[in-house]
UniProtKB/TrEMBL annotation:
<feature type="transmembrane region" description="Helical">
    <location>
        <begin position="179"/>
        <end position="195"/>
    </location>
</feature>
<dbReference type="InterPro" id="IPR000568">
    <property type="entry name" value="ATP_synth_F0_asu"/>
</dbReference>
<keyword id="KW-0472">Membrane</keyword>
<keyword id="KW-0138">CF(0)</keyword>
<comment type="similarity">
    <text>Belongs to the ATPase A chain family.</text>
</comment>
<keyword id="KW-0375">Hydrogen ion transport</keyword>
<dbReference type="GO" id="GO:0045259">
    <property type="term" value="C:proton-transporting ATP synthase complex"/>
</dbReference>
<feature type="transmembrane region" description="Helical">
    <location>
        <begin position="207"/>
        <end position="228"/>
    </location>
</feature>
<feature type="transmembrane region" description="Helical">
    <location>
        <begin position="32"/>
        <end position="54"/>
    </location>
</feature>
<keyword id="KW-1133">Transmembrane helix</keyword>
<keyword id="KW-0066">ATP synthesis</keyword>
<feature type="transmembrane region" description="Helical">
    <location>
        <begin position="240"/>
        <end position="262"/>
    </location>
</feature>
<dbReference type="InterPro" id="IPR023011">
    <property type="entry name" value="ATP_synth_F0_asu_AS"/>
</dbReference>
<dbReference type="GO" id="GO:0046933">
    <property type="term" value="F:proton-transporting ATP synthase activity, rotational mechanism"/>
</dbReference>
<feature type="transmembrane region" description="Helical">
    <location>
        <begin position="139"/>
        <end position="159"/>
    </location>
</feature>
<dbReference type="GO" id="GO:0005886">
    <property type="term" value="C:plasma membrane"/>
</dbReference>
<dbReference type="InterPro" id="IPR035908">
    <property type="entry name" value="F0_ATP_A_sf"/>
</dbReference>
Length: 269
């Protein structure tokens, strides 16, 4: 798959892409109409798996002694429900299902990082697929798309709850309630508003991308001899155990910030 360490790293960080016919043949050049097929495949596939699994548990749920899977799903639902009750100050039937979807979907996408780094790319290469990234959250396009969806909901509920006039007043008369400070207030509030999706998307992408790079660097140790390979195996196990905390924490942070942002948007001052 790669002749040297540099090519090995670049290979594992490259997405399987479809470029529009209007794009340049040079893959290194930027082109707007480029689809990262592997990111789309895994993110959609994992989302469908999440919906199927939770629906199956809901259909087969029992009031008697529950099975292990039902207990696990109920624990997740109760955890998310308590997080929503603590952070969201209002009534909205959409928030809890949205928070559950965000937490489980992101966690499952992050979990793909724990699969051995060469397994799926090697299997893809065997059938002629040159590049195959398996962790959707290491793709900035995926994380920013989710963040922009949250941002759209923030704008929607801000206008729905406060009205266009109330939302405009929030942007222009806060924090200084004086007409002369409207330009300053507007700039300040717009920066705070735009920083929400940017921080959501970049935080998740940055942490998962860094974790992926560390896994790739550890995998390179196997090619440096038996001693480095043994050390690499130990480091890979330690980092994988620690990474379980990271993937859970990143899913939780994205969920909580989404709840908080929507709670702020739903407050009518």
């Amino acid at each position: 798959m790669a002749a040297n360490p540099q090519e090995y790293i670049l290979h594992h960080l490259q997405n399987l892409q479809y470029r529009s016919s209007t794009c340049s043949a040079d893959a290194s050049e930027y082109c707007f109409w480029t689809w990262n097929l592997d990111s789309l495949l895994f993110s959609i596939g994992i989302g469908v798996f999440f919906l199927w699994l939770f629906r199956r548990v809901a259909i087969n749920s029992t009031t008697g002694v529950p099975g292990k899977l039902q207990c696990f799903v109920e624990m997740i639902v109760e955890f998310v429900d308590s997080s929503v009750k603590e952070s969201f100050h209002g009534r909205n039937p959409v928030i809890a299902p949205l928070a559950l979807t965000i937490f489980v979907w992101i966690w499952l996408m992050n979990f793909m990082d724990l699969i051995a780094i060469d397994w799926l790319p090697s299997a893809a290469a065997a059938i002629g697929v040159p590049y195959f990234k398996v962790v959707p959250t290491t793709d900035l396009n995926i994380t920013m798309a989710m963040a922009l969806c949250v941002f759209a909901l923030v704008i929607y509920y801000s206008i729905k709850v406060k009205g266009i006039g109330g939302f405009a007043k929030e942007l222009t008369l806060n924090p200084f309630n004086h007409w002369a400070m409207i330009p300053f207030n507007l700039v300040l509030e717009l920066i705070g508003l735009i920083s929400k999706p940017v921080s959501l998307g970049l935080r998740l992408f940055g942490n998962m991308y860094a974790g992926e790079v560390i896994f790739i660097l550890i995998a390179l140790m196997y090619s440096l001899g038996w001693f480095a390979g043994t050390m690499g195996g130990t480091l890979q196990l330690v980092w994988a155990i620690f990474h379980i905390l990271i993937i859970t924490l990143q899913a939780f942070i994205f969920m909580v910030l989404t709840i908080v942002y929507l709670s702020m948007a739903s407050e009518d001052h």
